[in-house]
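Input structure tokens:
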């Protein structure tokens, strides 16, 4: 997802001037003091098959489902994927090899990666994946760097530097690319980070991965950390080393932090389908892609994005929250009278564009969905008429009043089945049928 990356999503087309008679373009306050578009190439790294399935509330999908998810990722233009932790078990090793082979067999343009601790044993397993699959693998090699983690483990900086250098040199000797990952970077001391970054770069790391492991960062903190890392790399003259951002959502800021990381200079941001992952999860990759499009920084087929999130939810046994942006059941659904009236008036003007945006910042149509109007206790007559018209049914006053009275007596929006039964009951009493109109 980059202006100049190896696997870019399409750049958005220039906005066309709207013709006379069409609705005006809404004013955008986001542009008043908005984020500056990244100057550097950037892309997305999908962690669904590694950090995502570390969630205690999802299932590890079968191999066939994982292969299918790889196909979705490639179709979206995602640049790289974490295939898992091959050192975790014999099954993990076998499946990781199979997934790497699938990438080659299908010629999917996804950079393959595996996570590993800074141990020779873990990195040997990653190297085995590369050797058995014939696919180049990047080792995302991690070590805990925050002072509280060091204190708990009985580590000191000298030990971490020794492990970092040994692990990266071993990985490079095995033919692996290395992304050096400092766990809990957002709570680590700058002088220790600078020492670890320098050690990693000298040993041959090609990426530095900044981790908001416990979801501690704010957008301002994210920006400061990325800028600090860039300064460390400049000081060492390490121009070719890239910066990744990996964030969790404990404070509900994961997606915002990732966007700010790009603005500050990160080359890659991480995410998982539906935001699954440890504890409250990672940045949701579909929300990242959506916002990058809305910012005009890149483009993605929103329908494919919805299809991917849906496939990932089925594969992992994860129920998408109804209010999830873009992919949730209620993302484009209302049962409120004022909203329904505005949507109906927009459609009456013959403008699907306007009806899709009068009460939505995200296009339902571009997502392969449509604005849905339900009928419930907060509805008005507009809801009833809209519901009937969208199903090609007549809207006599007596029927509309009967449905609205029923809805006002309920404690939640009526289901389609309930509304259809009410319509059938009304028509049967009138001696008519739906089919007869």
């Amino acid at each position: 997802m980059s202006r100049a990356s190896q696997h870019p999503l399409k750049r958005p087309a220039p906005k066309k001037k709207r013709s006379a008679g069409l609705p005006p373009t809404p004013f955008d306050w986001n542009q008043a003091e908005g984020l500056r578009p990244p100057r550097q190439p950037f892309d997305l790294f999908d962690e669904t098959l590694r950090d995502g399935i570390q969630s205690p509330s999802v299932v590890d999908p079968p191999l066939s489902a994982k292969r299918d998810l790889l196909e979705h990722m490639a179709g979206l233009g995602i640049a790289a994927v974490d295939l898992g932790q091959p050192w975790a078990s014999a099954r993990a090793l076998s499946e990781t090899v199979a997934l790497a082979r699938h990438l080659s067999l299908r010629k999917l343009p996804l950079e393959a990666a595996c996570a590993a601790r800074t141990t020779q044993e873990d990195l040997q397993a990653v190297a085995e994946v590369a050797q058995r699959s014939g696919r180049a693998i990047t080792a995302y090699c991690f070590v805990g760097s925050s002072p509280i983690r060091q204190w708990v483990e009985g580590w000191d900086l000298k030990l971490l530097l020794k492990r970092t250098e040994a692990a990266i040199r071993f990985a490079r000797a095995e033919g692996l690319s290395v992304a050096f990952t400092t766990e809990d970077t957002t709570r680590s001391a700058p002088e220790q980070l600078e020492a670890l970054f320098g050690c990693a770069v000298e040993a041959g790391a090609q990426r530095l991965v900044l981790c908001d492991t416990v979801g501690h960062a704010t957008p301002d903190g994210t920006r400061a950390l990325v800028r600090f890392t860039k300064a460390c790399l400049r000081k060492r003259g390490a121009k070719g080393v890239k910066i990744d951002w990996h964030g969790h959502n404990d404070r509900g800021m994961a997606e915002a932090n990732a966007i700010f990381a790009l603005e500050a200079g990160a080359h890659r941001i991480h995410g998982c389908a539906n935001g699954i992952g440890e504890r409250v999860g990672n940045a949701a990759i579909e929300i990242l892609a959506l916002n990058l499009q809305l910012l005009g920084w890149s483009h993605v087929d929103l329908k494919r994005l919805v299809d991917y999130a849906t496939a990932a939810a089925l594969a992992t046994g994860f129920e998408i929250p109804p209010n999830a942006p873009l992919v949730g059941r209620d993302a484009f659904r209302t049962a409120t009278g004022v909203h329904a009236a505005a949507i109906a008036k927009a459609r009456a003007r013959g403008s699907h564009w306007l009806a899709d945006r009068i009460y939505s910042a995200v296009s339902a149509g571009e997502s392969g969905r449509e604005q849905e109007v339900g009928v419930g206790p907060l509805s008005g007559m507009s809801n009833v008429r809209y519901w009937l018209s969208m199903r090609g049914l007549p809207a006599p006053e007596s029927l509309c009043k009967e449905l609205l009275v029923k809805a006002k007596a309920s404690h939640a929006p009526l289901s389609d089945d309930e509304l259809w039964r009410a319509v059938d009951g009304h028509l049967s009493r009138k001696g008519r049928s739906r089919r007869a109109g």
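The chain has 15 helices and ten strands. Confidence is low (pLDDT under 50) at residues 1-14.
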